[in-house]
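Notebook entry, structure prediction.
Reason for the run: the old model in the group folder had no record of what sequence produced it. Starting over properly, with the input documented here first.
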Amino acid sequence: MRFVFRNVTTAFALLPMTLAASPYDGVYKQTANAECALVGVDGGALKIEDDIFYGVEVQCRMTNPTDIDDMGATLYDMQCSGEGTSWSERAMLMPDADDSGLYMIWSGYAFRYDRCDSP
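New structure, fully documented this time:
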């Protein structure tokens, strides 16, 4: 019984690592000449990590992911807060055709962000 308990414990210890990874995790340029080292400020970059979107003075928890058939896209409920207020919206995320960037569509707007190079 001890062997089984140790394996179950190991499995649960590894579970958060496998669930936390998202295909959209990364740092993305707001503009072509954005500073990738500066996340969450004007002229800097945006970041997605562990299902949290970090924008300019805002962060959104990305919940209830729903795959969109035959598009390679995911629809999320976004629970956002910033500048002293909170709100909820839906957003669709989709990698671009060559996987070098990200499309984000929400609230009547469509954005394309290039992925920042890894340090």
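Summary: Residues 26-114 form one domain.
The old model has been moved to the deprecated folder.
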